[in-house]
Amino acid sequence: MEPLSKSDYRPILKWAGGKRQLLPILLKNIPAEFNNYYEPFVGGAALLISLYSSNLIDHAVISDTNKDLYDLYKIIKENPLELIQELKNLEFRNSREDYYKARSLFNSTEDPVRRSALLIYLNRHGYNGLYRVNSENKFNVPFGRYKNPSMPSSENIMAISEVLQSCAIMNSDFEFAVSGATKGDFVYLDPPYMPLNRTSYFTEYTKSGFDEKDQERLFRVFKGLSEKGVYVMESNSSTEFIKALYNDFSYIEVDARRNINSIGSKRNPIKELIITNYNITAK
User: Per-residue pLDDT tens for 8-47?
Assistant: First the structure.
């Protein structure tokens, strides 16, 4: 197994709200220097991987309240070869019948390695890379109907295992996850976004949701970190509510594409904010 070049490291999962498309803008606007890196809504980990690949981080603290995502990253960090073998053992192909068999098995198995391998399969073959559960906490994303979906290579799994060796991985609320940040550290916040309107259900793909009170608590954490001398960058929806909350901080508006909508005509670029507690100018 030949190791990948760092420039070829890629996220293991597609993730709703993932930041690969915005990486050039985000990277232009990170602090010139910082100590430890914190990402409490890690999701697909696109920015983490990019920072590591650019030799910009030595130690990171990452977290997500999604237990399956936490387990996956822990297994990639600690038992990547076991996960690679489990993926090779999967006999599911790109068909509706196989997808729903895999989904049923995912919802019934408690084996963490098998569950993580199935999560990768479901993520790559399910609709728009969503993670969604029903009221019984059962994964219920439908089949994605992709012509030729790809699975992550063994080499890329080993590469992300390397990235994660530098990370403390948590399954915690964002406020607790960043509580250890001190002056000179850098925190990137990428929460479930504030809905753009009453018919926007983007935040409902997290089981517990993320409402206005959560957004207000996030702002208080943003402000508290700022008072400690921590560098903070946040991505969020370009809504009047968010702009009013962060009125005293710097932000730029950028175009982003959200592929979460089931109606293709509504997948046009929308406006998002990149908010910082330091000067930000580059687009």
Answer: 999 999 987 768 789 999 999 999 999 999 999 999 999 9
Are 50 and 23 within 8 A, CB to CB?
yes
Identify the CATH number of the domain in which residue 111 sits. Answer: 1.10.1020.10
pLDDT tens, 56-80?
A: 999 999 999 999 999 999 999 999 9
CA 218 to CA 227: how far, in whole Å?
A: 14
The DSSP code sequence of 11-51 is: -SS--TT--GGGHHHHHHTS-SS-S-EEESS-TT-HHHHHH
* pTM recorded for the entire structure: 0.92
Q: Are residues 91 and 112 in the same domain?
A: yes
Q: How far apart are CA 78 and CA 112, in angstroms?
A: 12
Angle of helix 96-108 relative to helix 112-125, nearest 10 degrees, comes to 150
Which region, left, alpha or beta, applies to residue 17 given φ > 0 means left and ψ of -120 to 50 means alpha?
left
